[in-house]
What we know:
The chain is of the alpha/beta class. The protein has helices at residues 52-58, 128-147, 164-175, 187-195, 209-217, 229-238, 260-266, 280-295, 312-320; strands at residues 2-3, 12-17, 26-31, 40-49, 77-85, 97-101, 111-115, 120-121, 155-159, 179-184, 200-203, 222-225, 244-247, 269-272, 303-308, 327-331. Helix 2 (128-147) crosses helix 3.
Amino acid sequence: MTTSASDVEGDVRVIEVATFGGPEVLALTEAPEPVPGPDEVVVEVSVADVLWVETMIRRGRGGEYFPVRPPYRPGVGVAGTVGAVGAGVDPGWTGRRVVTRTDERGGYLERAVVPAEGLVPVPDGVSLPDAAALLHDGTTAFGLLDLVPVRPGDHVLVTAAAGGLGVLLVQEVRARGGFVVAAARGAAKLDALRRLGADVVVDYAEPDWTLRVRAATDGPHVVFDGAGGDYGRTAFDLVRDGGRFSAHGTPAGEFAVPAAEAARARGITVTGIGDVQFTPEQARRHLRAALDATSAGRIAPLVGQTFPLHRAADAHRAIEERAAIGKTLLTV
């Protein structure tokens, strides 16, 4: 039964999608109280992660990489406190703060049943919103930096730099000794990137943005392209010969993976979205690295906006309208 926020009186609220469409298809519904099975736990959710790709999936544009079909429950990860454990799970998990990915049972909900093996403890000093913000973007950032290493003194261009992933790359590349050119759209995003330590910021709504990148870097050694589309294709043209290019973003259209022959001719190493499909253990390792870096004060997620669970549609709308800065989260 689909309901409004005020109508829901059951113990558990969850967002479901009955048909592809605009943000309005994110409907608040009731669900039975979840019970953990063997080797599972129930997480009392405080914060749910929200990703750009989820807006694509909701519109029916997940493609071959995300072949989701309605009806389905959106949401791919949560942070909260373990409320109950199933058979075979160490009862010591009860009451612990954790962050974890969720499965087809969804992540936009009040209580999530998840496998115990996927739990990652949240370190002291890291808030649950920050942990949720790191769940996917922190994992991807540190995974990308394993695949596309940055050396001290490298000039690095980050596109979609004011997004949840981009802001982490900007900070960690700076921490590793790189010179960062951060590209985004709009004064508010550029101001945020300056505060985060970007050496140069450029607005790629301006026609001379590529000239500014070249003037600052003489051609970057590395490009982390989180934008895709025309921005990503243009960013590839900026990479100096022998450089590295990561095409992992799609907000501007599609992954900007260059033609193999064009990359080979210039000696450019290219990585794509397929290269960041980590195994569960790899993903947990990269997430732990991101959590530790945050605990140590090396990086800080930028949570630009939060929405309560029943306003999931507004969260998606903010992302699609490019109104979001940094990470968008749902609070429960």
